Structure formats: structure tokens, C-alpha cells
């Protein structure tokens, strides 16, 4: 892609505050890391939409986000990985967050809380919606997203197994973890397809509430 394309695209700067969830404040260093990651995602997804993923290089993304390639690879292993909404630490630490929830919480409430934290660290809301457009036009990139969901599910299963004193292969643990990921996927799809200004967290809470009520069709309209 030419240098003029960079000029036309502009620079990403600091990513907007995420409307994908209500992230904890964290330390200054963590907030800066999150802002850099979101800026790279914002730049990459915009360039993917404008030029197609095949025409965009890591160098193009870095130039648009005004960071070095070395910084890019501190966050992602490839340009395709930019489309994964959450970072590797969020996925890897999911099992720990499951264990850290209050012991009196029911499994579904634990799942809702942990996923709420995960989407709070995800890419910014507008970027996530643009990501959906890129994936619709380039379905060959979906495998990265599928892999991230599988890894997140495995981390959930590990956490629930330890929390419940079972194994990750236990039928209940598998069902709980798979149901949690399906609930997240449905929440994301509903949010991306909507024209509402509601946050992803709103859709996540609503979907979990439907699940908690036994999927009765008329409870929430």
C-alpha cells in the first residue's frame, strides 16, 4: 500500500473509550497498554476495510497508528491476530478470575461477571463493529476468532473445574463452559446487528438473564 494511503487513512491516535464494557480502571501502565492495543486495532481494521487485508502490511498498520513494528509485536503475533477482540493475557487469566469470584456466586453469575471483565478489556466498540464487516467480506479470517473463542472456553473450563472440584472433562463443566461461550457469541452478534446505542455489556447481561430464566421466550420481550 502506498504512503498516500497512509495519509488518506490518517493516524489512529489514542483509541476512544471502549463502549464494549466497563473496564476496571487498572494502573496507568495498563491503561496505556490498552490504549495502544486499541489504537493498533482501530488502525488495522480501518485499513482492512479500505484496502482489503491482503493489501495491508504490519508496517502500514504501525504507520497509521504511529507506533513501531517492535511495539506491534508486543501485542500481536500477526496482522490477522489484530481482529481478536481481547488480548492473550485476558484469555490466559480467565481461569484465575473464575476462581477469584466470591464463593457464594452461582456458576452462571460467575460466568457473566468474568465475561463482563473480558469485554471490558476488548477492542473499542466502534472497532469491534467494523471488525464484523471485515469478517463478513473476508471469511477466511474467521478462524483466528474461532480459535480465540476455543481458547477462552478451555480457560473457563479449567477455572470451573477447579472451582467446583471436578475435572475439565466433566460433562457439567464442559456444558457450562460451552454455554458461556455461546452466550457471549450470541451477545456479540446481537449487539453488532443492532442499531441501538446500548453497550455490549447490556446485551451480555440480557442474554445471561434469558439463560438464567430457562430460555422462556416471553420473559424479556
From TrEMBL:
Keyword Magnesium: no
SUPFAM superfamilies the record matches: Homeodomain-like
Xref: InterPro entries: DNA-bd_HTH_TetR-type_CS (IPR023772), Homeodomain-like_sf (IPR009057), HTH-type_TetR-like_transc_reg (IPR050109), HTH_TetR (IPR001647), MftR_C (IPR041347)
DNA-binding region location: 57-76
Keywords: DNA-binding, Transcription, Transcription regulation
Keyword Transcription regulation: yes
Location of region: Disordered: 1-36
Compositionally biased tracts (Low complexity): 1-21
Residue stretches making up the HTH tetR-type domain: 34-94
Any one Gene Ontology molecular-function term assigned to this protein's record: transcription cis-regulatory region binding
Protein name per UniProt: Transcriptional regulator, TetR family
Species this protein is from: Actinopolyspora righensis
Amino acid at each position: 500500500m502506498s504512503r498516500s494511503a497512509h495519509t488518506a487513512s490518517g493516524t489512529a491516535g489514542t483509541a476512544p473509550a471502549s463502549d464494549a464494557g466497563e473496564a476496571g480502571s487498572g494502573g496507568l501502565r495498563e491503561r496505556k497498554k490498552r490504549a495502544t492495543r486499541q489504537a493498533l486495532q482501530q488502525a488495522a481494521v480501518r485499513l482492512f476495510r479500505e484496502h482489503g487485508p491482503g493489501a495491508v502490511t504490519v508496517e502500514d498498520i504501525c504507520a497509521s497508528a504511529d507506533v513501531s513494528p517492535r511495539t506491534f509485536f508486543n501485542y500481536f503475533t500477526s496482522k490477522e491476530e489484530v481482529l481478536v477482540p481481547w488480548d492473550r493475557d485476558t484469555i490466559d487469566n480467565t481461569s484465575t478470575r473464575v476462581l477469584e469470584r466470591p464463593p457464594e456466586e452461582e456458576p452462571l453469575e460467575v460466568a457473566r461477571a468474568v465475561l463482563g471483565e473480558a469485554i471490558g478489556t476488548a477492542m473499542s466498540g466502534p472497532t469491534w463493529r467494523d471488525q464484523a464487516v471485515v469478517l463478513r467480506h473476508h471469511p477466511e479470517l474467521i478462524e483466528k476468532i474461532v480459535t480465540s473463542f476455543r481458547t477462552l472456553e478451555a480457560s473457563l473450563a479449567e477455572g470451573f473445574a477447579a472451582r467446583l472440584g471436578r475435572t475439565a472433562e466433566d460433562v457439567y463443566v464442559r456444558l457450562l463452559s460451552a454455554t458461556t461461550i455461546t452466550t457471549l457469541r450470541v451477545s456479540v452478534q446481537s449487539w453488532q446487528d443492532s442499531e441501538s446505542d446500548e453497550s455490549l455489556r447490556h446485551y451480555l447481561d440480557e442474554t445471561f438473564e434469558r439463560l438464567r430464566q430457562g430460555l422462556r421466550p416471553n420473559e424479556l420481550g
